[in-house]
Write a structure and sequence with these properties.
heterodimer, A: 318 residues, alpha/beta, three-stranded antiparallel sheet, 34% helix, B: alpha/beta, six-stranded mixed sheet, four-stranded antiparallel sheet, 13 helices, 35% helix, binds adenosine-5'-triphosphate, binds magnesium ion
């Protein structure tokens, strides 16, 4: 198992108050999954539900508040610094905010080759330049862009530099946080196909966070759906696509906009309604109850646990 | 409301001028929503930046951009400042670089309403955060941008633009970080804005589903040039330009059977296509002729392709 989470919770320290020091704010609760070589875990969920936080914790960029993360069976929190550095080289992240994730004072070439210099000491400048040009090319950008600075790139070009930077060190695992959100459909398809090829050829494992259900369907072997820091459904990808079980998953599936103006126009004004719950005051019951058209009184008072239903785990007994 | 005529944007790169936007023309009426779609790097964001007078230091805009009859490109900087943020608002593609990291979100929003007393501006800001579905808005307003998730920052930007009650809203990929249920709510909110306050909207998006839901008309860019301009229904029903056809064919559909790989448009875009003669799409086009490589096709009756109009 190349990456595993066991009952993982992640928290942010809250700013110190004048009198008291409030408890840390837990934004990811009790997440468990197992990811094998060459496979993809897709993560979807509402905005602010903790996907990016979870992604950072999986790379040990944030500590686990409870539970643990395992990299090929080992807990990074217990690794010696040198072991951790080596293990980290094999685990990369593509950040959600592509331009902000690049150092504004570094050319694309420098951004790309810097990880090489640390992870493969001894590599020559010419070699690393060639590697940078090659990997950039595979994301659909010519070597002309190596000399550019981040502010001279379009949103989608910056995103592809972020992808190239994650790929260049030839990692075993990549956490992809909305990696194709700024790409047009053709380049998006090209990048998705590239990742699929790398999985087949090199056994690359991916955690793929995305709001784009069509892309998740293409990429993922397993899908995890999150709401307010909790997993509400975890299922094999095709089963999830054919019949999502949790009411939130179903609402997502129905809200995917289709490229059909007549159909879309008839859906105007019919978006999901109801208040979104807050992480600062999480509801005692189901996190989706305030928006669920099938909510019963007990949904608002007791939180349903994840339980098996067919091939899936679903946190809704109804 | 807005009429862009022959807009160009050039950048000085290593001592040379490189063209990013090459003669873009489009117009938007009051209350109309125009979608701007096209390949990554085709100049969509630069069109918006040029209108806002916010091109990078090495950039130059040419042509005309008439807003309520005044040319935004030749306007005195002070006059443009007055329009910006009030009559014309923009939602940026990259929220983290557009928000001030050291200022509480509520203060940044309230600043838009500088003409109101502070408490009242704050109240309006919180109400707007609620409209864009930020949970616990009153408490959230007191927090800083880095404490927000990607999609929440995006909604803060949207709230900021809407607070200004602009006549023209420029929106650059405003919903990419939102889940589809919230995206639908936000698109409906933008649609209401156009219908109720007659705001004209120019929205950049890669998601043709978003175009289908919100837009009245669509402009398709490739390599800095307009390939096609059409009503939304017409474009989806019968795209005319080979690039528009490729875009629609590459759009994934949830109902379609799953293929082992996703559909792309064959070939890769040329870097700096807009600086070269000929149709920028020619190297990837199935209908290409010698003439396409030499002569740049003009946009005539909504289409810049001689091969499909013959
Ligand atoms: N540095 C921080 N300090 C305090 N709270 C934070 C911090 N970063 C994120 N949060 C909060 O943690 C929660 C989860 O945020 P996260 O960025 O993980 O969400 P997300 O699922 O990635 O959302 P999106 O889809 O919008 O990117 C949010 O409520 C957010 O406001
Ligand atoms: N400051 C700059 N100097 C040189 N070239 C630039 C500069 N800013 C942008 N460009 C180039 O101008 C072209 C158009 O960029 P623009 O940001 O408008 O693309 P876009 O259509 O918005 O793409 P995306 O969908 O990827 O955001 C790109 O090729 C980009 O690399
Ligand atoms: Mg995120
Ligand atoms: Mg852009």
């Amino acid at each position: 198992m190349i990456l595993e989470a066991r009952n993982l919770s992640v928290a942010y320290p809250l700013p110190r108050g004048l009198i008291s020091r409030p408890a840390p704010l837990t934004v990811v609760h009790d997440v468990s999954f197992r990811l094998e070589r060459g496979k993809t875990l897709g993560i979807v969920g509402e905005s602010g539900c903790g996907k990016s936080t979870l992604g950072r914790a999986l790379l040990h960029l944030l500590p686990a508040a409870k539970g643990e993360v395992l990299w090929a069976g080992e807990n990074p929190a217990q690794m010696a610094p040198e072991t951790l550095r080596k293990a980290r080289a094999k685990r990369q992240i593509i950040f959600q905010d592509p331009i902000a994730a690049l150092d504004p004072r570094m050319t694309v070439l420098k951004s790309l080759t810097r990880p090489l210099a640390t992870f493969e000491p001894g590599i020559t400048r010419a070699e690393s330049r060639d590697r940078a040009a090659e990997v950039l090319q595979r994301t659909g950008l010519s070597a002309d862009y190596l000399a550019r600075y981040p502010h001279e790139l379009s949103g989608g070009q910056a995103q592809r530099v972020g992808i190239a930077r994650a790929l260049i060190a030839r990692p075993e695992v990549i956490i992809c946080d909305e990696p194709v959100s700024a790409l047009d459909v053709s380049i998006q398809a090209q990048v998705v196909n590239l990742l699929l090829d790398l999985q087949e050829d090199l056994g690359l494992a991916l955690v793929f966070i995305s709001h784009n259900l069509a892309v998740v369907r293409q990429m993922a072997d397993e899908v995890m759906v999150m709401c307010l820091g909790r997993v509400v459904e975890q299922a094999p990808a095709e089963a999830f696509h054919l019949s999502p079980q949790h009411p939130y998953s179903q609402a997502l599936r129905q809200a995917v906009p289709e490229p059909d103006p007549l159909a879309e126009r008839s859906r105007r004004g019919k978006a999901l309604q109801g208040e979104l719950p807050s992480v600062h005051a999480p509801p005692p019951g189901c996190v989706f109850a305030s928006r669920c058209d099938r909510a019963r009184p007990e949904c608002r008072t007791t939180r349903p646990e994840l339980a098996p239903r067919g091939a899936a785990l679903v946190a809704c007994p109804y | 409301m807005l009429e862009i005529k022959g807009l160009t944007v050039d950048f000085r790169v290593e001592g040379r001028m490189v063209r990013a936007v090459d003669g873009v023309s489009l117009s938007i009426a009051k209350g109309q929503v125009m979608g701007l779609v096209g390949e990554s790097g085709s100049g969509k964001s630069q069109v918006l930046y040029a209108l806002m007078g916010l091109l990078a230091e090495n950039g130059r805009a040419g042509g005309q951009a008439l807003f309520q009859g005044q040319d935004l490109l030749t306007m005195a900087p002070r006059a443009l400042d007055l329009l910006r943020g009030k009559r014309i608002a923009m939602i940026f593609q990259d929220p983290m670089t557009a928000l001030n990291p050291y200022q509480r979100v509520g203060d940044q929003l309230a600043e838009v309403l500088f003409h109101l007393p502070k408490a009242q501006a704050w109240e309006r800001a919180v109400a707007m955060l609620e409209r864009v579905k930020i949970p616990d808005a009153a408490a959230r307003a007191r927090r800083y941008p880095h404490e927000f998730s990607g999609g929440m920052r995006q909604r803060v930007m949207i709230a900021m633009a809407l607070l200004a009650e602009p006549d023209l809203l420029l929106a650059d990929e405003p919903t990419t970080a939102l889940d589809v249920t919230i995206q639908a709510q936000i698109l409906d909110l933008l649609g209401e804005l156009a219908a109720e306050t007659q705001t004209a909207i120019l929205i950049v998006t890669h998601d043709l589903g978003v175009v289908a839901r919100l837009c009245d008309r669509v402009t398709v860019l490739y390599g800095g040039r307009v390939m096609e301009e059409a009503g939304a229904e017409a474009l989806f029903e019968a795209p005319r330009h080979p690039y528009s056809q490729g875009l629609l064919a590459a759009t994934p559909r949830m109902e379609a059977p799953l293929a082992p790989r996703m559909t792309t448009i064959p070939g890769t875009p040329r870097a700096g296509a807009a600086s070269l003669p000929g149709c920028p799409f020619a190297p990837r086009c199935a209908l290409v002729t010698d003439r396409c490589r030499k002569e740049t096709p003009q946009l005539i009756e909504g289409i810049a392709c001689r091969e499909v109009t013959r």
